[in-house]
Write a structure and sequence with these properties.
- This protein has three helices and eleven strands, in the order αβαββββββββββα.
- The chain is an alpha+beta fold.
- The protein has one domain: OB fold (Dihydrolipoamide Acetyltransferase, E2P).
- The strands form two sheets. An eight-stranded antiparallel β-sheet has the order 4-3-2-7-8-9-10-11. It has a three-stranded mixed β-sheet with strand order 1-6-5.
Amino acid sequence: MRQLSLLLAVLSLSWALATTFTALTLEELTQQADLAVFGVVENVAVEARDGEPWTVVTLTVTRPLAGELGESLSLAFYGGVLETGLSVSVVGMPSFTVGAEVLLLAYDAPYYSPIVGFNQGLWRLTELGFVDAQERLLSLNEAGALTLDGEGGDTEAILTALSQLLENR
């Protein structure tokens, strides 16, 4: 009985939540974005909000692309581990590493994930270019239009094309 009680106590401290979402096209991602930014992850911290863990990610804005942005941007994502030991893990929730360069499209409102399409509006800058959660490269096609499944490309050219796409929506 003691072991069962201990097991139930441990299980109650950690929750894993599954997430489903509809795949969005690049046009849909840009249409839904209130904010678009290329920046560097400066801080990742977990804080309690109404007793639940939220991971707050702060970016230094390298290049604002859409929305009202200052020199930094903080976004809150549901989940994380509190000092009390309470842990909430959401499958597919984006995670961030300090120092990483990211391109993101986000909502300007609180959601469990402020990234448009839950995690679809997030690309990490790698040696190959901007890579999304599905390992696709954000690229320019032969006509100079953005595509989600190309071969990468020049960072500045991609940011310029995305900025123009956002302006024309």
